[in-house]
Specification:
single chain, mainly beta, nine-stranded antiparallel sheet, four-stranded antiparallel sheet, 1 helix, 15 strands, globular
Length: 189
């Protein structure tokens, strides 16, 4: 979901990792490595991450059913910080990710390039905590009650981030040149 992660819903796709996107937590950040993730020992610890096509039901992010179709994906992640039990605390994501978003009621669609590099932080229990862009963009879901209206956002700009707060709400913080496009608004009209 992060970098080019898609920040998934119940699955983070940035990616940065967005779509993020693999299964993403309730934050809708696609950053969970898929079961098909594989490590290339010559890669310096980078493991292939394969984002999954995802359908978000009407009401989850948009008023309509939203389909996220992976057009191009060559993402990798690397553990850079671990908890004492060996579970990831911080992961870096990098690589190209292009997603086509489709309003399943009207057929309207747009393609967004979520390529980039991002850092993803996890809580001790393994749940997604935040994603921060080093360069590029990510996609993430925003439930009701967050810093932005409910929607599926494409977030860009160095140091822009999405954080899951202790009360379950999400906050998108934009870096100095950051932007946040709500794909639901883009595809609604």
């Amino acid at each position: 979901m992060v970098r080019g992660l898609t920040v998934p819903s119940s699955h983070w796709t940035i990616r940065i990792a967005a779509t993020c996107l693999g299964a993403v937590l309730t934050t809708s950040v696609l950053v969970t490595p898929s079961a098909s993730a594989r490590t290339d020992d010559s890669s310096g610890g980078w493991t292939r991450f394969e984002a999954a096509d995802t359908t978000f039901p009407a009401g989850k992010h948009c008023d309509f059913e939203l389909f996220s179709d992976v057009v191009r994906d060559n993402e990798f992640f690397k553990n850079v910080s671990l908890y004492p039990d060996g579970s990831p605390r911080t992961q870096l994501f990098k690589g190209p990710l292009v997603i086509q978003y489709t309003n399943m009621e009207t057929g309207a669609s747009v393609v967004r390039d979520l390529t980039g590099n991002s850092a993803v932080e996890y809580a001790v229990d393994g749940s997604f905590r935040s994603i921060t862009i080093q360069n590029g963009s990510f996609s993430g879901g925003m439930p009701d009650g967050g810093s932005h209206p409910r929607g599926r956002y494409i977030v860009t700009g160095r140091w822009s981030s999405l954080t899951v707060n202790g009360d379950g709400t999400n906050t998108i913080a934009l870096g100095p040149n950051g932007t946040a496009e709500n794909i639901c608004d883009t595809l609604a009209g």
